[in-house]
Amino acid sequence: MKTLLECFKKLNKLPLAKTITINSEKDLLKIPFPYYMKVSISGHKLEKKAVLKIESESSARKEYLRLKKQFPNNPVVIQEQISGIEMIIGIKEDKTFEKLLLIGFGGTNAEVLKDVQFRVVPLNKEEILKAVSQLKLYPTLYKRKKYAVDKFVNLAYEISKMDFKELDLNPVILTQDDCVIVDARGDW
Fold it and tell me: Selecting from 3.40.50.300, 3.40.47.10, 3.30.1490.20, 3.30.830.10, what CATH number does the domain 12-80 have?
């Protein structure tokens, strides 16, 4: 599996969270607090304590030094915090169907709630919208605020056309106005 930075390089024409690679402690102030600090690894960042919410300069310095010590061969990045609903988009090669698109509610909810839908690729935007509407938590996308579901559908459609063997975009943050990829790992 490729790392966050490798995937972001391949996804560079799509909406990505502002992400800066940290080369020294002075780079820690390039994005306003709060932000997320991550190590660009291919594994599950949360389980490895390689993703942290940072709210101050002192915690940024402390955690940066800890991450550099724990993961000396991997780049550390800071990333803007985006508030919204966490979604997931994925691609998986399948022996029976060749290529599947996964969409659903993401973040840690992807593993706990398993509120996801699979569709065989190729497919059109209407088919993706229908899959989104079949998610159990779909009504939350319209209950209090109206989220940019159309942008999520467009992003899923673009991802479905790309050449990946496997891809996990989790989370993709859905706001009222946008849909932004925050984390990625994949293989091609």
Answer: 3.30.1490.20
Which of 2, 9, 1 minimizes the C-alpha distance to 181? Answer: 9
Report how far residue 44's alpha carbon sits from residue 110's, in angstroms, rounded to the nearest whole number.
Answer: 13
Cβ pair 176, 147 in contact under 8 A: yes
Secondary structure class of 106 (helix, strand, coil): coil
Tell me the mean pLDDT in the region 14-35. Answer: 95
pLDDT confidence tier of residue 47, bands split at 50, 70 and 90: confident
| Helix, strand, or coil (residue 3) | coil
pTM for the model stands at 0.93
